[in-house]
Design a protein that fits this description.
Elements lengths: L16 E5 L2 E4 L4 E4 L2 H4 L8 H11 L13 H12 L6 E5 L2 H16 L3 E5 L17 E4 L2 H4 L12 H4 L5 E6 L13 H13 L3 E6 L22 E4 L10 E5 L1 H9 L12 H16 L2 H17 L7 E7 L2 E6 L2 H13 L2 E2 L1 E2 L3 E4 L7 H16 L6
């Protein structure tokens, strides 16, 4: 592909996929690959899902794009459905295009309401497509929780902790990514997050749950923050909510929505609240509910986690972390990781290569048979390593 500029930092391994279905993609020679990464963690219901495709086709025949002075009823139907799913009854939604955008508008609404200027997140968070979205300027407080991992008192964590005492009082919002940690799948302690949220709230700040990666069933619950004792003011949703279609949503709880009514916030974007994206969101939520995929993601995740744990030998595979169908396998070094990654692709299995880790985020529809097949392939790839130095 001479005229396409690839700048993701990842090597293009299979340049011409011509067919897809469920967990599988097919190249021009007919070779199949099990996509254990769900594209870029987006195809939560599998590639080429016929029910979602049908919804898209129906909406195309009605209205795909809306102007500033006209819309379509699917916006209200979809907004009510996802707000109720999130427990934000009587809140409001803004439909956008990317997760980065949903996080950005949530952050800006929080600043608008609190009239504070300093944002806070954990040091290993990923909040947007541009690295400049989080910098070390005076407008950001990055809370380093590395010490908390080995803290013997973490379960009894209270606000006297030195890490917590360093939180500035002028925080506008705490943006919490509940477990992805820039793709390395690390789960901050529950007590730590609860205390951070209390401190920020007591100082007049807002809580934003970044659910772009961890939401829509990925962790075995509708949203990753539901594993923690917090109630966010805003939720940024993306990736899996579109099943490959580029749509995202900023969810606003009832209280913050009323504040915005009293203190209007202005934001314009060409594809804000487009009917086509809203129709996809509506279809994805209905599909997940009808197929009971949240509980399936939890049970499938436990099975996959258990089978991956059985491969830990401390020589090649050193650790497995996961929650639901969001897992990572730590490898001894980057060279071995690359070897396993390439061997899996040769055998028709796609995972994420994160340097010294393999990231695994299969579609929520994965079956036990497919889990077994993947584990067998990983075991075979692992057995090809002759020498560990």
């Amino acid at each position: 592909m001479e005229h396409v500029f690839f700048c993701t930092g990842h090597e293009l391994k299979i340049p011409n996929i011509i067919k897809s279905e469920g967990l599988y993609i097919y190249d021009e020679q007919g070779k199949s690959y099990m996509d254990m990464e769900s594209g870029v963690w987006c195809t939560s219901l599998g590639h080429n899902n016929t029910e979602i495709n049908g919804i898209i086709k129906n909406q195309i025949d009605s209205l795909t794009h809306a102007g500033f002075c006209y819309s379509n009823e699917i916006l209200e139907k979809s907004a009510k459905l996802i707000l109720n799913t999130a427990g934000f009854k009587n809140g409001k939604s803004v439909f956008l295009c990317s997760g980065s955008e949903a996080i950005e508008i949530s952050s800006q609404m929080a600043k608008h309401l609190t009239e504070k200027r300093v944002s806070m997140t954990l040091h290993d968070s990923y909040l947007g497509a541009y690295s400049s979205i989080v910098d070390k300027s005076k407008n950001w407080h990055l809370l380093n929780w590395e010490r908390c991992k080995s803290c013997p008192n973490i379960e009894k964590c209270d606000q006297s902790c030195e890490v917590l005492q360093k939180i500035p009082k002028d925080i506008s919002e705490f943006i919490f990514e509940p477990g992805s940690s820039s793709g390395f799948v690390r789960f901050p302690p529950k007590a730590l997050i609860s205390n951070i949220a209390k401190i920020v709230r007591n100082n007049g700040g807002k809580i934003v749950a970044n659910e772009v990666t961890t939401g829509i069933g990925r962790t075995g619950k509708w949203f990753g923050y539901q594993h923690y004792d917090i109630d966010p003011d805003f939720i940024a949703v993306g990736k899996g909510i579109g099943n490959g279609y580029p749509v995202s949503i900023a969810l606003i709880n009832k209280s913050a929505a009323r504040e915005l009514d009293r203190k209007p916030f202005h934001y314009s974007q060409s594809h804000q609240n487009d009917p086509l994206g809203a129709s996809v969101v509506y279809g994805v939520i209905q599909y997940i509910e009808e197929k009971n995929l949240i509980s399936k993601a939890e049970s499938s995740g436990l099975l996959l986690h258990k089978q991956l744990e059985a491969l830990v030998d401390k020589k090649i595979i050193t650790e497995v972390r996961g929650r639901g169908l969001m897992l990572t396998v730590d490898i001894k070094n980057e060279e071995i990781t690359k070897f396993l990654y390439n061997k899996l692709i040769e055998r028709g299995y796609i995972v994420g290569n994160r340097g010294s880790s393999l990231r695994i985020d299969p579609p929520l529809i994965i079956s036990e048979t497919e889990i077994d097949r993947f584990i067998d392939a990983l075991q075979e790839a692992k057995s090809c390593i002759k020498l560990i130095t």
